[in-house]
Amino acid sequence: MDKIKMLDGECWWGGKVPSGCDMPFDENSDCTFDIESRDGENDQSASLFLSSCGRYIWNDNPFAIKFNKGEISLECAYGTDFEIGEGYKNLKGAYLAAAKKHFSFNGELPDKLFFTSPQYNTWMELGTDQTTENILNYARGILENGLPAGVLMIDGGWQEDYGVLEFHKGKIPDPAYLIYELHKLGFKVMLWTSPIVSSAGVRFKYLRSKGYLLKDKDGEIAVRRWWSGFSAMLDFTNPDAVKWFRGQLDSLVECYGVDGYKFDAGDASIYCRDDDAYVKTAPRNHTTAFNIMGEKYKFNEFRAAHNSGGRPIVARLHDKNHSWDNIGLNTLIPNTTVQSLLGYAYCCPDMVGGGMIGSVNSANDTDGELFIRWSQANALMPMMQISLAPWRVLSSENYEIVKKSICLHKEYGEHIYALAQNSAKTGEPIFRNMEYEFPNEGFEHVCDQFMLGSDIMSAPVLTKGAAKRSVKFPKGEWADKEGNIVSHGGETKEFDAPIDTLLYFKKVK
Fold this sequence. Notes:
Elements lengths: L1 E4 L6 E5 L13 E5 L9 E8 L4 E3 L5 E5 L2 E5 L7 E3 L5 H12 L10 H4 L2 E3 L1 H4 L5 H13 L6 E4 L4 E3 L2 E4 L7 H10 L3 E6 L2 E2 L3 H10 L13 E3 L2 E5 L5 H18 L3 E4 L19 H12 L4 E4 L2 E2 L8 E2 L15 H10 L5 E2 L19 H12 L5 E2 L3 H4 L2 H16 L1 H14 L4 E3 H4 L12 E3 L3 E4 L8 E6 L4 E2 L5 E3 L3 E6 L6 E5 L2
Parallel strand pairs: 4-19, 9-10, 9-22, 10-13, 13-17, 17-18, 20-21
Antiparallel strand pairs: 1-7, 2-4, 3-6, 4-5, 5-8, 6-7, 11-12, 14-16, 15-16, 23-24, 24-25, 25-30, 26-29, 27-28, 27-30
Helix pairs in contact: 4-5, 10-12
């Protein structure tokens, strides 16, 4: 076990995105954090921790880290050495040093449309009832209600079965017509898919005979529990399995004009350390193999990812509850902070209002205030995704406020894309937590405001019923959206923030 002493005032971020609300860890923290653990696996992760004092901890494999009253203990079950980077002054310096050495930024990035227009997903609106009629009605509703076209993701339920990448003949009898109509409306079309294979039927038997399915420690096909039951899964450490799966995906592109894929599942929880994989590896490294398999598609989205910082993948936060403080709106800024610090620059903060199916569906169970504040918090983040139709579940007055947030995101779309291009070249995040951009100014524990690039600061209201909030300004001159200087920096000021107002500021000097 390796041990290092914490420095005075030092704060740490890293490991797993879902734990963002517990960060940063500081000299008063007393907790153990295990990247190898399969708890909290439903998001991105990396074997990396970063310090506000310019240090980083890296290992090629998942590891456990313990913070105990000023001492850090490190242990890796795989026996690989720890790399301790030091001398980089602050959080930004530590991040850039780690990114240069361990991330894959190479100029490639997802398609521009992800950044310049809102994305739409049929999941919360349609569930698995993904029919031609329902999908087209949803797409037409977007345009009829004054929203711009963008990426449209057809979620799970379009296919014949898990592992059978063919359109369900009863739901979508003429897929070419559906894709053509969606393209004509101005949308790019993505389909839901995953490594999961139903453990019965002709496709399962074929994949088993070819050796493309993951095997357990006894050499039998691994059948594991996931959210839709018990199923087998493709072994993406096997290059032939990768080739077969890509062939299925490419066939849909060539035959019907599908633009890309939402790659779901692939979490570490469905893999075991002793699996008899084509290449034996840590559970989280199977997730990395999944990311590598799908990164070739310019239109992609992953929820599960590991050690894939810098790859040209869209990283979406795990499904959020329709809640202010129960894995809901409260997680957006802390978790997106960790996404960005782990190299997942092209990040999406789940669906506006929450993407956890069943948590909200109708106007009766939709908190209009929450939906509005969520859209405002999301407006100046790298991406914005809509699923539950706001024009259906909100009052007309509340819908107009949400539409204002969506329009603001589109207004900043070219600016966001320019930041994404910069990320692809330099590794610099698009979304930046305050400590990253303004070190040594007391922002280590500020997790309710953030930076878009280096000069736009967003300070959304995150508390139910609040109509004002305090904003902590870094050094420099700051202007409001009308261009009026409101702060000369280094101070905290309170502003009115009625329900139709997002507070955001531009650094002008």
